[in-house]
Structure formats: structure tokens, C-alpha cells
Amino acid sequence: MEDFYREYILDHYRNPRNRGVIESPDITYADSNPLCGDEIQIDLLVKDGLVDDVKFSGRGCAISQASVSMLTEMIEGKPIDEVKEITKEDVLELLGITLTPVRVKCALLGLKVLKSGVYGIEAAEDEDL
Ligand code: FES
């Protein structure tokens, strides 16, 4: 079964889904993995509370790139409120293989960026009130 997941990870790494940037995103955020310095940026367009478009850019290892690619696929069309509920376990489940602690950081980089972006815009909007 792990072989299937390995293939799945490699497929996302070689053919990343939603790779690119959005010209005028509603949400954009970038962050890096402190262990290696690899950075990921995620841009989102939000329409009526739903993820209308999502793109990611940056660089990283196969695990980080595959995991953010899977994550962007997972959130397309989803309500932002649901995106906020995505957990580390959800992302690790998507990858489906056992990871060492260092690799877990790689796997969760995309989620960290996504959550910071989604919660960041909310904090910014609150400040406007
Ligand atoms: Fe840098 Fe995995 S080695 S994100």
C-alpha cells in the first residue's frame, strides 16, 4: 500500500496541481521551513466565502511540494470556514506514508502557510472594524 502512496506523492511532485501565482489575490502568504529554508507561497481568490482559485509557488523537497499540491486540490471550491478546520492529521493522511519528524515539517509547510494566510486576512479585517 505504501508503494501506491509513494507513486501518488511522486505524481504530485512531478505534475504539481495549481502551481503558479494569482495576479490580484485576496489572500497571499509565504513562509519557510526553518530547517531547510525552503519557501512556499499560497495565493487565494475568495468568492462568497468559497475558495474560487488557489495557486502555490516556491521551492522545496518532494514531500513539501506534493503535500501542498494535494492541499490546493483539496481546498478548491471549499468554504473558507472549512479550510480553517483542516488539521495536520488531514494532511498527513493525504500523504499516506509514515514520515520522520523532519519530514513531517516538510509535509506541513503548505498547511502552515495556508492557515497563516486564511487567519491573517481575518485578523486584518477585524482591525478595520
Ligand atoms: Fe525543505 Fe523539505 S527539505 S521543505
Descriptive labels:
single chain; alpha+beta; Sufe protein. Chain: A; 5 helices; 3 strands; 53% helix; binds FE2/S2 (inorganic) cluster
Would you mind describing this structure in some detail?
The protein has 129 residues and is α+β, with helices and mostly antiparallel strands. It has one domain (2-119): Sufe protein. Chain: A (Alpha-Beta Complex). It has five helices and three strands. It has helices at residues 2-14, 62-75, 80-84, 88-95, 101-128, and strands spanning 27-32, 39-47, 50-58. It has a three-stranded antiparallel β-sheet with strand order 1-2-3, covered by helices on one side. A hairpin with a 2-residue loop joins β2 (39-47) and β3. Bound molecules: FE2/S2 (inorganic) cluster (FES).
Shape: globular
From the coordinates shown, what is the CATH architecture?
A: Alpha-Beta Complex
Classify the beta-strand content into a percent band.
15-25%
Report the order of strands and helices.
HEEEHHHH
Fold-level CATH name: Sufe protein. Chain: A
**For the record, what CATH class applies?**
Alpha Beta
What ions, cofactors and ligands are bound? FE2/S2 (inorganic) cluster
List segments where confidence is low: pLDDT < 50 over at least 5 consecutive residues: none
Helix content: 40-55%
